[in-house]
Amino acid sequence: MVVYPWLILSIAFIAIFLVIPVIIFLSLYVTALVMYVYRHRQKLDAKRLLSNQTKWKSLLYVIVMLWEAHGYFWHSYEVDGLDRIPNEGPALIVYYHGCIPLDHFYLMTKILLYKKRFVRSVGDHFLFMLPGSKTLMKELKVLTGPVDQCVKLLSEGDLLSIAPGGCREGLFGDNLYKLMWNNRSGFAKVAFEAKVPIIPVFTQNLREAFIAVKLFQCILKPLYEWTRLPVIPFYGGFPVKLKTFVGKPIPYDPKITPEELAQQTMNAVEELIRQNQRIPGNIWDAFCDRF
Fold first, then answer.
1. Where are the domains of the chain?
2. Helices (H), strands (E): how many in the chain?
3. Can you say whether the dihedral through the CA atoms of 188, 190, 196, 197 is positive or negative?
4. 97 assigned to active site
5. How do 198-204 and 243-246 pair as beta strands?
6. pLDDT at 50 over 50
């Protein structure tokens, strides 16, 4: 039997980058599980956490440092403009959605580590349908909306993040980095009603880290629109350079409409892409950006 080294290497390469996304999801589950078990063993609810934070903060610090190390060693991750995230008070963070928004998790880690603030996130409904995902979403402070709940969180002084393109942008976007917001303005209505600034965010080379399979998308896209489930397979985990750019905050302005605010935000994110992203994106060039 003839063994072809190039064939073995090719199969190993494909297998590795099909498995890495699974490992990422498992890591998120483990993170949430550790937090969940600790809460219940210590019988800590929200009020008791405020009065007995030492052990909880220690656990949270260990988790944050592990994810910080993962971002640094695997993606040489860094943030430009972290000072634009307020040290206190509410703000709405609006970001571009990659195939897997791992960059947003890294950014949340940075904000928690250096700003001592937890970011609440708006996620797709399907995230709550996965086995065990309710615990995961609860521990990661993810909610599905609606507008009034988001406004309430911001009114209480929290940071909130949302990707207007959502799962559609993540699955059907490509290395041209075109926004797929479909004239959505709900996030702008939230910021307008809560009277808070919007902070635009984009991560360089995000599309080169994880890639959605383009084969059969013409068939699978109608299925997605009908079910709103992530029916597109993806692969990746490529150790490319990831760098998040935090844009200038867009202040609350009572003289404009939510629709105009949504357009301003879209223009701001597109400008971040134009200034900081090589188009079309390329995996090899994105990897070389590390050096």
1. 1-75, 81-289
2. 12, 9
3. negative
4. yes
5. antiparallel
6. no
